[in-house]
Amino acid sequence: MGVAGSTGPVMDRDEVDRALARLGAEHEAIETSLLALQDHAGRRLLEGAELTGVTKERWESTEASITLLWAYFDAYSDALRSAREIRSRRRWSSREDLVELTELLRGEAVTVAGSATAMANAPTLPGAGRLSEQFSLSTLVDRMNDLYAASLDMVVAADAVWSALPARIDLLAAELQRTRQLAHSVGVRPGEHPAGDDLERITRTLTRLREEVISDPLAYWVPAPGSSAPGGGRPDISTYDREARALDDVRREIEAVLTVRQDAEARLVKLRDVLSRADRTLAEARSARGEVLAKIAATEVPVVSGPPTVLQEQLALAAEYRRHGQWHRLSPLLESLEQKADDELLRARESLTAVTAPLAVRAELRGRLDAYKAKVARHGLAEDSLLVERYDVARRMLWSAPCDLRVAEQAVLRYQHAVAELLGTPVPGRQEPQDRGGEES
C-alpha cells in the first residue's frame, strides 16, 4: 500500500486487478442494458409516434437522458480502456502506474462533455445545464443507473399502455360496429331511440380514447404507490371498461327488441285474450249487479265501470307498429300493455267479487239454514213447532226477492239459537238472539 494522496492510499496491483475486473463486469452489464433499451419496442414506437401532452414532455426529457446516458457510457468505456492500457504496460506495474491507476479508478478523473440541450433536458440530474462534468467511475455508474431506471420507466409505461388499450379498443369498436348494424336492422337509430343515441356516444368516446391513447399513453398510466421499479404501475382502463359496459347494456336492449320481433304476434294474441277476458268479466259483473239489485235489498252494490278504451287504442297502435316493423317502438309498448292488461283483468275480477258478495252471503245463509235443518232431523226434532216456525220464517226471507240480508241473517240466528237450546249446545261465534218468548211468529 503506498502513501495516501488526494484519492486515498495508492492501490496495489491486486486491488487494481480486482477493481478492473469489477468495472469490466459492470461495463458489460450496462452495455447489455443500454442495447436492450435501444432495441425496446416501446422506445421504437415512441420515436416514431406523434406525441402530445404529458407523454411528449416526458419523451423529450427521456430522449435527452438516453443521449446523455450513452455519453456517460462512452466516457466510462474510455476511462476503463485507459486503465486497462496502463495496467497492461508491464506485468508488475510501477509506482507511477499505480498512482495513475488509483487516480483514474478512484478519483474524479472522468470528464463528460455533453451538449447543453442534453444536459438541460435531464432536470433530475445534479449539475444539469453544464457543458461538462467531472466524475469518478463509481459516481458515473450511479448516474447511469439513475438515468437508465428513469428512461426505462417511461418507455415501459408507454409500451404497457399501448400493449393493453389499442387492441382492446379495436375489438370493442368491431363489436360496436356489429351492434350498430343490428340496431339499424330493427329500427334503433340516433334521435329515434335512446339506444341509438348511446351507440353514437360510445362511438365518439372510443374514437377519442384511441386517439388519446396513441398520442399520449402516459395520460392513461397509473403508477403503483410506493413502487420504485421501472414500469411499476398499470394502464388506466376505466374509460374503456365503462364504455364496454355501456355497449353490453345497449346490446341487451337490442336483443330484447329482436326478441320482440320474433314473438310479437304471440304476445299480441295473448294481450287480446287477456283484455277479452277482462271485458267478459266486467260484463259478467255488470250483469251480476243487476241481479243483486233485483234480489238483494238494503245493501250497497258497487258500480261497475266499463273497459278502458285507451288499452284498445294502444293495442291497435301495437299492431300497427308490428305491421310496419317498428320493433324499437313496439318493444316498450308491449311491455307496458302487458302490465296494464294484467292489472285490468285483476280489476275486473275484483269488481265481480265485490258485486257478487251479497249473493255469496245469501248462499252461505241458505247453506247454514239447511245444515241445521238436517241436524234437527237427525235428532228427531223435525216436528218441533217452534223450530218449524222459525225455519219457515228464515227460509221465506232467504228465498224471497228482494232479500234483506240483515233481517234474514237474524232469522237464521234465531233458528240456530232455538236448535241449540233444544240440543243443549252453544252456537259457535254467533251473538245470542233474544229469548224464545220474544220471538215473532
Automatic annotation (TrEMBL):
Keyword terms: Coiled coil
The species this protein was found in: Streptomyces ossamyceticus
Stretches of the chain forming a coiled coil according to its record: 247-288
Official protein name in the record: Uncharacterized protein
Keyword Coiled coil in record: yes
